[in-house]
Amino acid sequence: MEMLFLIFLEVLLAAITLTQLGIKVSLVAFGAVLVLYAWASTYDIKGRYLPLQRVEIPWLYDGIAEMTRKANIPMPRIYLLDDYIPTAYSFKNAVVLSLGLFEVLDQEEILAVAAHEIGHIKNGDTRTFPLLAYGRYLMLVFTIVLMVLARNTTLSVSALALVGLYEIAWARFHKEREFLADEAALRLLKTPMSLKHALEELKYYEDLRTGMRSNAVPSIEPTIERRQKQRPLIIETHPSYDERVLRIIIEINGNRMIKNHIQ
Amino acid sequence: MKPQEFKLTEDGIKAVLPPLEAEIMEHMWKIKVATAGQVYEVMKGKHPDIRRSTISILMNRLCERGLLERSVETGRGGMRYVYSVTSTREEFEEKIVQSILDALMSNFRDATYAYLSKIKK
């Protein structure tokens, strides 16, 4: 994998320039990442998350259960998040859906959003994403250590270039996994088009909310502010709703064409 | 809620609230408690093109303004947000009048006194 190769190059750079010290620094850094990953694995969510029991929303629980059977993965834990902004995400073997989703989407569309998250779990993203995110910190800390200890311009530039390349590779990987989660969701859903409809409605919500904020008279502007995800300034890690909708249309039409051809 | 602006050309609470938010509040004062979905069904009758997202965003704006409050309810339809009014329409109107008069008194004290005494007569 591209990112592992870049980390390897960074370690190589450290080993060549700092010899034994470089190897020691690498080992300490890797150890720190593993400890961080192990600590994060034991951490469980608290606060505004409400674990969902089947009796509370049977159609949602049963829908997710059916999709996980199809995906051949264990039944995930389902949490409802007390947040009026429609959002969903997954971690480990858990799916989180905000209560805001239930205000703007219908049942099929909510299941489509859940299917996307199941797609992430099925594709192993909930395990790899945190590791690769720690990889970013690893690269950054490594580069700073190298720059301080080696005091060599060529080495510093090379290390910085590797950090930049890692960021690009990470963003590209992240984006591709989003598309793959959508593809997995399309295979799990009874009505694949519901994913397209859900994304269109979520895009409409985002646009409307952003539009309202920018059009509002400053003095009466409401403070309905979404907690912004930390995003890099230049590199976008998530595909846009339009890109995803386009891929979904292509995927659905492609599948239809294949089916028609077989018949 | 303290109004930040007063539109002289608008009628009723539309003078201090955007039109759709004013319509939602008119409805909410009648029924007191509702989900965004229930308000959507009513608003759809008047505005056929309106979407669930619009109602959800506006109702949450009204929460931010302090006119509605949101709570999680676990019922037959599962968990959901329920919105309820924080004051009666009369209390709201009283607050509006108070804040406008306070602003007039602090900016144009004599003229406001003079005009109010003229109205009394």
General description of the model:
- The complex is a heterodimer of chains A (263) and B (121).
- Chain A is built from eight helices and four strands, in the order αβαβββαααααα.
- Chain A has 263 residues and is of the alpha+beta class.
- Chain A has a four-stranded mixed β-sheet, with helices on one face.
- In chain A, a hairpin with a 2-residue loop joins β3 (88-91) and β4 (94-98).
- Chain A starts with a helix and ends with a helix.
- In chain A, 30% of the residues are buried.
- In chain B, strands 1-3-2 form a three-stranded antiparallel β-sheet.
- With 121 residues, chain B is of the alpha+beta class.
- Chain B has two domains: 14-86, Winged helix-like DNA-binding domain superfamily/Winged helix DNA-binding domain (Arc Repressor Mutant, subunit A), CATH 1.10.10.10; 87-121.
- Helix content of chain B is 56%, strand content 15%.
- The longest helix of chain B is centred in the C-terminal third of the chain and has 19 residues, at 89-107.
- The mean pLDDT of chain B is 88.
- Chain B has helices spanning 19-31, 36-46, 52-64, 89-107, 109-120, and strands spanning 33-34, 68-75, 78-85.
- In chain B, α4 (89-107) crosses α5.
- Chains A and B meet through α3 and α7 of A and α3, β2 and β3 of B.
**Average pLDDT score of chain B:** 88
Largest interface: A-B, 27 and 25 residues
Beta fraction of chain A: 5-15%
Give the % helix of chain B. 55-70%
SSE-based structural type of chain A: alpha+beta
Shape of chain A: elongated
Domains counted in the coordinates of chain B: how many? 2
Could you state the order of secondary-structure elements of chain A as H and E? HEHEEEHHHHHH
The total of helices of chain B stands at 5
- What is the CATH first-level class name of the largest domain in chain B? Mainly Alpha
Whole-Å distance between the termini of chain A?
39 Å
Our count of domains of chain A comes out at 1
**What is the multimeric organization of the chains shown?**
heterodimer
- Note the run of SSEs of chain B as H and E: HEHHEEHH
Global shape of chain B: elongated
Q: Tell me the major beta sheet of chain B.
A: 3 strands, antiparallel
Sheet-strand content of chain B, in percent, reads 5-15%
